[in-house]
Amino acid sequence: MNKVKVAVIGCGVIAPTHIQCYQACEGAELVAVCDIVEERARKLAEQYNVPRFTTVAAELFADPEIDAVSICTEHYTHVDLVISALNAGKHVVCEKCLAASLPELDAMIAAVKAHPELVSSGIFQHRFTAINRELKAIVEEGLLGRLLTSRAQLYCERTNEYYLKDAWRGKWKSEGGSILINQAIHFIDQMLWISGGPDLNQKPVAMIRNLNHEGIIETDDTAAAVVPLANGALGVIEATSASFHIWHNTLSFEGTMGIVEIRDDKPLTVEFKDPEVQAAVAKRLADSAKPENLDFGKEYYGGGHPAQINDFIAAIQEKRAPYVSLEDAASTARVILEIYAPFRKV
To answer: Is the C-alpha dihedral spanning 152, 133, 300, 90 positive or negative?
Structure first.
């Protein structure tokens, strides 16, 4: 089977992870990187022995040699790049968040629907983590009984320097928000995905605050929300980037027959009415919580990027839908953008 020739667009923080994933993927051949800052593109190409670099994404879209692209740029650029790539006949995988506003997200989804022959995927690499898949199976098997509440919590620290380093961060127009759309989005996605998805016919209820970065960002550093879930349960979100914790996340799922809680990808609470079910679930979670082999990327990225990139390439070769389609990933983006909608100032 011919290798899928790929280009990575955007040479910022997440790009090396994509590059190394493609270089480790037997079905892929990384042929180019792109960034509007020439030095960044050149440096990354040299560091990873990528044969070509450019500052113009349109050159890659026009190149018949290139089959697929990874979009690793700032949030506000995603919609134009994804649409341009699809219109040029390229398969696309896009980093979170897919868009910085609801109209942008709608435009992206319209382009995806217009090109059903192309594989499009949104990066939610934690869906490939063993403990998250086990949690989803436990919920789907009905072991918790009727699901009542699901909760995603993230406490992390982002300094003023972090936000000031890149001009697009912490602004409504360019980032689309802050703590929810950037740091907490993966845990929100895990909570929604494991629970069976959001009820997109009902709006979330939320409050957001900027408690520790006043004058630095115009968006949120602290947020809380309640999201209606498709099965009738309630999803609860609590997140802050004003914490002294560098990184601390918790997912919990409570049903009529049991409760399961994991913290930093390790079982924290496993309690069930039936002792035998409790013992079985505890073993399943313990077995799936084995440390991942993180050869590259930041620790809190988890080990899911290689699995998702491999699935993206395999989907192209096998002419099938990816495990995380772009439309599926868009449901989580939509929840977050709907939370922000009453507070947006642009």
So the answer is: negative
- Rounded to 10 degrees, the C-alpha dihedral 84/86/91/97 comes to 70
pTM over 0.90? The answer is: yes
The rounded Cα 159 to chain-centroid distance in angstroms is 22
Bridge pairing between strands 68-71 and 91-94: parallel
Interacting residues of 234 by C-beta distance below 8 A, sequence separation 6+? 148, 149, 150, 226, 227, 228
The two tokens of residue 75 are 């949030």
For the record, the structure tokens of 23 come out as 């270089």
Judge whether 313 and 294 are in contact, CB under 8 Å: no
Helix, strand, coil percentages (3-state) for the chain, rounded to 5, are: 40, 25, 35
Nearest residue to 188 via CA among 239, 233, 139: 239
Q: Give the pair of three-digit tokens for residue 213.
A: 């970065």
Dihedral of the CA atoms 81, 85, 91, 97 (nearest 10)?
10
207 SS3 class:
strand
Distance CA 28, CA 119 (A): 15
Residue 147 to residue 159: CA distance in whole angstroms: 37
Distance CA 205, CA 309 (A): 34
Measured between its terminal Cα atoms, the distance across the chain in Å is 48
**In 3D, which of 79, 125, 69 has the Cα closest to residue 100?**
79
Q: Helix 38-47 crosses helix 15-24 at what angle (to 10 degrees)?
A: 30
Give 269-313 pLDDT, tens digit per residue: 999 999 999 999 999 999 999 766 556 555 555 679 999 999 999
Q: What is the pLDDT of residues 237-265, one digit of tens each?
A: 999 999 999 999 999 999 999 999 999 99
Question: What b/e string do you get for 150-167 counting C-beta neighbours within 10 Å, with b at 16 or more?
Answer: bbbbbbbbbeeeebeeee
Alpha helices (H) in the chain, listed in sequence order = 15-24, 38-47, 57-62, 78-87, 102-114, 130-140, 160-165, 185-195, 275-288, 304-318, 326-340
